Amino acid sequence: MSTSPAVNVHTEQNSELSRDVKFTVLSNARRRDVLRLLRSYDEPVGIRDLAERIAAWENDTTPEAVTYKQRKRVYTSLHQTHLPALEDAGLIEAARTWEGITLTPRARELDAYLDGERSTSEWSNYYFGFASVGLAVTGVAWVGLYPFSLLPGLAYATILSLVLFVTALVHARTVRR
Hints:
Elements: H1 19-26, H2 29-40, H3 47-58, H4 68-88, E1 92-96, E2 99-103, H5 111-143, H6 153-176
Antiparallel strand pairs: 1-2
């Protein structure tokens, strides 16, 4: 096991990660990206694949379009800093020197933090869709088109408010998990 200044943990694999270790591991975007990528793979992966994928995300391009320099920059930081820190924390294992990298069961402790980061944009889509439908219904009711002219404006406002309330409630419960 390598020793990294970022995370140095000398605990048993069965114990829970300390808050400090969790915060240290999650404080870096590349470490979060490594954990996310490893969760998405069904089989062990090598450092080259991780570096290429992360370089693509960081440069807003496809893995095929990543340049040697972009990939090398990520590869070097993964090799020297981030993968050793994740290994020291007991979150990853490698069959050889950074080949055949897999998550350990202990990495599940960080799932809630990693899920919440990416799910924010999904909820913004729900709210945008809700606002669009609300504006359309309000516009049609204001013009007085049938069947929207059958109910008073206050009824539509109440229905839209209730739907917004339920959506926000579901969002809050999802984020807390």
